[in-house]
Amino acid sequence: MSIFKSVGMGLIVGFSSVLLHNLYSPFGLIAALLLTFVGIRAIGQLFFFRRYQIIFSLAWLLVVIRAGSPGLADEILVYGNTPGNIFLLGGLVVLLLGLITPKSLNR
């Protein structure tokens, strides 16, 4: 059941960050990256094992890569412009930072 929750949250956070990254140019991008970091940290706090964070990351990447590729009517949600490139690379960096940082300062 935890796997489904992790996948669902990854899909929701990925979809929200894809829609948010191009809104109000620098602020939407910052909010999308912050949402991604908070999402992966929340999964780390909610489910203790790191495998759920990896599943969250894979679901997030699935949504973002699908949004960056042309669809049936040649629509693209993540363009190859500066905010789109920063979102793709910054999102990957944020996911990696969320995976390698310790879960809590008290542990």
Structure description:
This protein is mainly alpha-helical and 107 residues long. It has one domain (2-70, 78-100). It is 73% helix and 0% strand. The protein is built from four helices and no strands. It has helices at 2-20, 25-46, 50-67, 82-100. The chain is globular and about 45 Å long. The mean pLDDT is 90.
In short:
This protein has 107 residues and is mostly helical.
What descriptive keywords fit this protein?
single chain; 107 residues; mainly alpha; transmembrane
| Average of per-residue pLDDT values | 90
Order of helices and strands: HHHH
**Helix- and strand-based class?**
mainly alpha
Instruction: Give the beta-strand count.
Output: 0
User: What share of residues is helical?
Assistant: over 70%
Task: Give the total of domains.
Answer: 1
Instruction: Indicate the overall shape.
Output: globular
- Helical element count? 4
Give a quick account of the main beta sheet: strands, pairing sense, barrel closure: none
Strand content: under 5%
Using only C-alpha atoms, the radius of gyration works out to: 14 Å
Question: How far do the termini sit from each other?
Answer: 26 Å
Question: pLDDT below 50 for ≥5 consecutive residues: which ranges?
Answer: none
Keywords: Membrane, Transmembrane, Transmembrane helix
Transmembrane segments: 30-49, 54-73, 85-102
